[in-house]
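Course assignment 3, question 2. Fill in each field.
Student: A.L.
Task: Predict the tertiary structure for the chain below.
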Amino acid sequence: MPNFFSFAEQVLISPDVETKLSLTHQAWQWHQQVHLKLETPATSPTSAVAITPLSPESARFPEKPVLVDPRDLPKRKLTSTEGKVALLHAVAHIEFSAIQLAWDHLYRFRDMPQQYYRDWLGVAEEEALHFELLRGRLREFGAEYGDLPAHAGLWGIATETAYDVLARMALVPRFMEARGLDVTPGMIAKLQNIGDISSVKILERILHDEVGHVALGSHWFQWICGQRGLNPEEEYFRLIERHMKGQARGPFNLELRRLAGFSDAELILLDKGQGFA
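Answer field:
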């Protein structure tokens, strides 16, 4: 019977968009029906051989979009079709990268409770649905995912945090994805102002789900801190300072972050800019 890790490895090493989406949906359906297992032949109680996960550098991506420095991405006005396509393409790339990140969360760290793996499989499924909604909207504009260049740095943080699940939870859901809680309401407002209600509905769905994804990151971050006897607030800011020095800029959506599990102490420090040296 397939297990979490075999599905994850297939998703991560495939360079094909459709394969990644299909495997994600298949894994979710399998789990809904029969519950995927954590054990593999090499991790069963009868085996002394441990499986070493592939490195994040082994993950493969499609040839398109071409990945570039964020400063090289084209700037277009949202009032034009080209501008809406550019925005939707950028968000689609974030969601596509989030599929990979969710799979890597559950693939890389093998000593967590079973609920951890179930949670991130659910996130991978939702990110795949988000991507498909955005790709469908792009196609309505006559565009396709891969037509434009995309942000090159989104996978780098997976490589940087591969050493520890605590760092991964702090940096990906509670830093990178939490930025989506800050900026997506503004995107929605701009699209509403120009009457693009179809795109608004997609971003509203994504924003709703992303609150839950960040909340899962908060839950597991706090759980790991509890297991290690660490102060969650202190550890969060220590890790952000270590890995993202100078990149933690507001404004922050304090209401949505609170819903996503940020503590009052964290929000006060974020709002005052005192959490980062």
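Instructor remarks: Residues 16 and 62 are 6 Å apart (CA to CA). Residues 40-50 have pLDDT under 50 and may be disordered.
Grade: pending
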